[in-house]
Amino acid sequence: DRQSTAEKPDEINVSITASGEVLVNRVAVGARDVATISGAMSRLVASGKEPVVVISADATATHQAVVRVMEAARAAALIEEAEKRATAARDAYTVDTLIEELHGLP
To answer: Using CA atoms, how far apart are residues 80 and 67, in angstroms rounded to an integer?
Structure first.
């Protein structure tokens, strides 16, 4: 991949056509399996950047096609990273609150 880090997108747009074809940033993936879709998304993620994944589906696309794209985003660690950040933020808040409460004890 010759794209420099500065050129890689902060947003990944995934489109699902009525026939179930998947396009990542307007480029056809060529397959409909989770691994292929995930690989296409992973190649667009710049190191250290946290992209937003936008999924757009035709009104007649199947729910399974949308779920497959969501699974692919998880497999590409795009959703997982967001979940980790949310958990870390929640845990940090919990620890800070506990420390504050302990300091308030006699």
So the answer is: 15
Query: Nearest-CA neighbor of 37 among 74, 88, 4, 91?
Result: 74
Please state, as a whole number, how many other Cβ atoms lie within 10 Å of the Cβ of residue 47: 6
Tens digit of each residue's pLDDT (9 = 90 or more) over 32-53 = 999 999 999 988 876 666 788 8
Q: Helices in 4-44 by DSSP H: which ranges? A: 34-42
What value does the mean pLDDT take over residues 57-84?
82
Residue 6 in 3-state DSSP?
helix
H-run or E-run covering 57: strand 52-57
Residue 104 has a pLDDT of 64
Nearest to 76 by CA among 45, 55, 47: 45
**Three-class DSSP category at 12:** strand
pTM of this structure: 0.64
Could you tell me the end-to-end alpha-carbon distance of the chain, in angstroms, rounded to an integer? 60
Amino acid identity at 21: E
